[in-house]
Design brief:
Length: about 100
């Protein structure tokens, strides 16, 4: 028998926010608490949970904007990040090629 390990959302699990650590902003009221929130991944439509702890890390440790929220699941986030790195590498190669043409 397999027990379903399902995360409860809104189960009262919340973390008090440290407002002094959040990125300053003028127009948005900052979250006072972080609570587990469920959302659908923008790309693959998977049901995900953005946990209170992940939110705290994002807002307080990584300097994330308080206006941004999770839109993608972990797998899709990693894919997007890889694509961005590939794109950057490609751009750098193009720049290098241009430079070498001029030199030659
Ligand atoms: Zn996804």
């Amino acid at each position: 028998m397999k027990r379903k390990a399902q995360k409860k959302v809104g189960s009262g699990h919340r973390i008090k926010a440290d407002l002094s650590k959040q990125t300053p902003n003028n127009s948005y009221s900052p979250p006072l608490y972080y609570e587990d929130v469920s959302f659908k991944c923008r790309d693959c439509r998977a049901e995900c949970v953005w946990t209170a702890e992940q939110q705290r890390l994002w807002y307080e440790e990584w300097g994330g904007s308080v206006q941004s929220t999770a839109v993608r699941c972990r797998a899709c986030r990693q894919r997007v990040r890889r694509e961005k790195i590939e794109q950057k590498k490609h751009m750098e190669e193009m720049t290098l090629k241009k430079g070498s043409k001029r030199a030659g």
